[in-house]
Amino acid sequence: MHGKYDDIINMERPVSKRHPPMPLANRAAQFAPFAALTGYEAVIDEAARLTARQIELDEDAKAEINRQLLALAARTDAGEPVQVELTWFEPDGLKLGGAYRTETVLVRRVDQAYRLLELSDRSLIEIDRVLNISQKRMQNEK
């Protein structure tokens, strides 16, 4: 029995004299899955990311925060930054909701007219987003 390809069936595989053989890892990469929907994975991850709703404070909590803000304003009006532990709601830039942050910050100024806290780094926090204020003593204070 003679086949159509008997003359080449037992020949050695051709090897280029100009190009070195490709490493096996690179050859395998040619057959990796193709991502037909570029960015789809990022969209799915963003949709799965959870955000929180802003808590609506009752009147007693609002009154307590306003009392703390008045004391804070009196100290910042004297020209000294005040160190406080502040918890506030930070809205998410991409979707409905946000997250609560708690940080120790230096408050430079309380702007009652625009209802803003100005921090030492010049960032602004809306007073209506504040959940809690705890005044800290500066290290040089006794």
List the helices and strands and how they pair.
Blueprint lengths: L23 H6 L10 H9 L10 H19 L4 E10 L6 E14 L4 E4 L4 E3 L3 E6 L7
Antiparallel strand pairs: 1-2, 1-5, 2-3, 3-4
Contiguous low-pLDDT stretches (5 residues minimum) are: 138-142
Count the E strands: 5
DSSP strand content: 25-35%
Helices and strands: which structural class? alpha+beta
- Overall form: rod-shaped
Write the H/E string, N to C.
HHHEEEEE
Strand line-up of the largest beta sheet: 4-3-2-1-5
Question: Which fold name fills CATH's third level, the topology of the domain at 59-135?
Answer: SH3 type barrels
Cα separation of the termini: 105 Å
Give a verbal description of the structure.
With 142 residues, this protein is an alpha+beta fold. It has a domain at 59-135: SH3 type barrels, CATH 2.30.30. 24% of the residues lie in helices and 26% in strands. The protein is built from three helices and five strands. The protein has a five-stranded antiparallel β-sheet with strand order 4-3-2-1-5. Strand 3 and strand 4 (124-126) form a beta hairpin. The longest helix has 19 residues, at 59-77. It is rod-shaped, with a radius of gyration of 32 Å. Mean pLDDT is 88; it is low at 138-142.
